[in-house]
Amino acid sequence: MGGTTATTGGTATVTVTGGGSGLSGNAGSGTAASAGLDGACQSQTFEGTRVPLDLYVMLDSSDSMLEETGTATKWDAVGGAIRSFVNDTDSAGIGIGLQFLPLLNPDAPSVCHNDADCTGFGVCNQRFCQNAGPDFYGCGRDSDCVFNGEDLGPCEMLTHCWSNLVATGNIALCHNDLECGLADDCIPFAHCGDDDYRFCNAPGLACSGNYGPCVEEGIPSTCEDAVSCDTDTYAEPAVAIATLPAVAPAVITAITDHEPDGNTPSAPALAGAIQQAHDWAVAQADHQVAVVLATDGLPSECIADPDGDPGGILGVTAAAAAGLTGTPSIRTFVIGVFASDETDAPGNLDQIAKAGGTKQAFIVTTGNADDVQEQFVAALDSIRGSGISCELQIPMPTAGTTDFGRVNVFFTEADGDSAEVLYYAGDEAGCESGKGDWYYGEDDDGHPTKIIACPATCARFQAASGGKVTIGVGCLTVVR
Q1: pTM exceeding the 0.85 threshold for the entire prediction
Q2: The listed CATH number (3.30.450.20, 3.40.50.1950, 3.30.2310.40, 3.40.50.410) that belongs to domain 53-103+229-389
């Protein structure tokens, strides 16, 4: 009896049976032979494929991704892992799309020099914690200057002693003129008018090297509230979902050209990713679509209820849960990149993964860049294989249409000599109640689009290397 191998990915042979006698609702002992299916229906063999897998990746590009890990930054290591994954021949046929977090509000200025530039978007982040002593701590508000219970505020404009810089070339941060001495002034940083990122020390005079006048507008920065908290912003892809390997160059270019910066607005970013995945799944009803949230930090922006959800995790889990319970259902895989001493991170990310229907997060431990890349690739490989063997395309007969009340699924163990008939569960809830082993994935109008194995059945498929799944059409569907 021909059938699909129960391992992940690739093309499979699906045996489609047609004609023959009907079958009562009870399958007896649960084998094809004892149920009267083996010889009752004539067989035709079709070449079928697994349900195609599409992934929408939401990639954390906050400034913490620039932290070193061994010989490279997290960003370089993760970028290398994604490059390896999209170029892997085993990824051929998978769809992939990409977006980054954080993204700026499109109405916010990309650069600010003073608070006036940021009207409607908070203050211009040119500030530092004034009581931090010789250390430098950037901040946006006074609350940013509290470290381990110690108040290092207030958060004020970044200023320096002008004469000290002129005389010595060294920057001396200051709060007021008195700290600079009687003959010196405490002034904001200045920059050259034709180059925002070239600092100068003589406002009003020309910068050397033909970079324009030295202007006292403050150092170029970004507005405190410039990060977008809008779900729709993150739903718009940087790289639209398309099939590998054709889309690989676009993914690689997008990551290469992107510069990490800012904080971590996880909740709207994940909600946007799920929105994009949902829209794609509606348009591609015969595909399975999932989101991959890859992050090195917990939420730090766009927390809807800071008092009730101070860590922001509840908002992210709510987004993941909404995706899972939606129609069509969108699973969320989570990959976390953390140091081994960040002990709270795995548990928090596990919450997001569980809410998104994927049990637990993949945790990549930093320390060596090569190890980070290798671990990240392994996580993507696991996602590539996860669940693919558990969603099968419904085979279409060579003549007529499929009667969805006459479809059966059989499973043969790798070393078995008889096919076990699997019971129809009716829906996902039937899996949980033990009613059956599989159900139909449906579009918005309730039309079956694919066959989905219940979680326990899926686990059997994935554990049975070399086992076979056979789909029969023509005999009454077996139910308990």
Answers
A1: no
A2: 3.40.50.410
